[in-house]
Specification:
- It is a single chain.
- This protein is an alpha/beta fold and 301 residues long.
- It has two domains: 172 residues, Vaccinia Virus protein VP39 (Rossmann fold), CATH 3.40.50; 82 residues, Orthogonal Bundle (Adenine-specific Methyltransferase, domain 2), CATH 1.10.1020.
- It is 34% helix and 15% strand.
- Strands 1, 2, 3, 4, 5, 6, 7 and 8 form an eight-stranded mixed sheet that branches.
- The longest helix has 15 residues.
Length: 301
């Protein structure tokens, strides 16, 4: 098996964890719905495995979902936009850091097209987008690299398009509205903003365009239960012996487990060697499936 295609490094992406998450998705799922799609890692992996033939991708971050839609529907156009912007940083008399700041300024002042979004994601520190109180991107540029080369972006964009084109619908709305569309037989994968960054005290931080409160989210899951809709949730976790976030309420009757997310980058920066575990919750009807198609030999480097 070759590499699973991914468009760009994106903090919070479930690209590495997708094989562990996807094995809980039934073969009989009519659609996979991602209300917090990001760069669509779970749907991309599921499509690669042939697990489902229909997908719904939604994100409240408009330029992000537009970038993903262009990647899937018109990969050549996205690749061309990105290539033109990427090569611009090497123009004569152009300082690449100043060039990044210029593109970021253009983006924040209305030129928030898919090509600029992709370039900024490719160049920001750790692939970590940050926003100010006005919703403008303000993350700094990684001075050690120039961003993914255009030929690699083009190759991966075409591979992702081949997996999802003609099978995917795209939305840019609040997750609660999107979930109103879910039907019995769908599988909803929810990866909301990280706990501790979006609650009543701190409704959003600079990592997210919009936060999600704990009580609100639990109430929404309860409504999915009432409607008989299956779902998987990535939410809280642990780093070392430190618990991060609240455990979802027992009344939801969820199966709860921890999956190994690797060494904590933040702990490493602090001189520690600690493993991060992310919580995975399954609605009551779901169980682990391990048919032959999940016998994977993965190369996710």
């Amino acid at each position: 098996m070759g590499k699973i295609p991914h468009l760009v490094q994106y903090q919070g992406s479930k690209r590495i964890l997708a094989p562990e998450i996807v094995k809980y998705i039934p073969k009989t799922a009519k659609r996979i719905i991602e209300p917090f799609a990001g760069t669509g890692a779970v749907s991309i992996f599921a499509a690669y495995q042939g697990i489902c033939g229909k997908f719904v991708l939604n994100d409240i971050n408009t330029p992000l979902i537009q970038m993903l839609e262009l990647c899937i529907e018109e990969p050549a156009l996205l690749a061309r936009q990105y290539s033109e912007i990427w090569h611009g940083q090497f123009a004569e008399n152009e300082n690449n850091i100043d060039y990044f700041l210029k593109i970021r300024s253009e983006f924040n002042n209305g030129k928030c097209d898919a090509g600029r979004m992709l370039f900024l994601l490719a160049r920001v520190v750790k692939g970590a987008v940050r926003y100010n109180a006005h919703g403008q991107m303000n993350q700094s540029c990684d001075k050690r690299r120039y961003g993914t080369k255009p030929d690699i972006v083009e190759c991966n964009a075409f591979k992702i398009s081949k997996l999802l084109k003609g099978k995917t619908r795209f939305y840019n709305m609040d997750y609660k509205e999107l979930l109103d569309m879910a039907e019995t037989g769908d599988l909803v994968y929810l990866d909301p903003p990280y706990q501790g960054t979006s609650d009543k005290v701190n409704p959003r931080d600079n990592r997210y365009i919009q936060g999600v409160g704990f009580e609100e989210f639990a109430e929404v899951l309860g409504k999915l239960n009432d409607r008989g809709i299956d779902y998987i949730v990535s939410y809280d976790g642990m780093t070392g012996d430190k618990k991060i976030g609240q455990t979802l309420p027992e009344y939801l009757n969820l199966k709860h487990m921890y999956i190994n997310a690797g060494t904590s980058a933040q702990a490493t920066l602090n001189g520690k060697n600690e493993t991060t575990y992310e919580s995975l919750y399954l609605s009551s009807n779901l169980k682990e499936v391990t048919p032959e198609y999940m016998q994977l030999s993965l190369n996710l480097a």
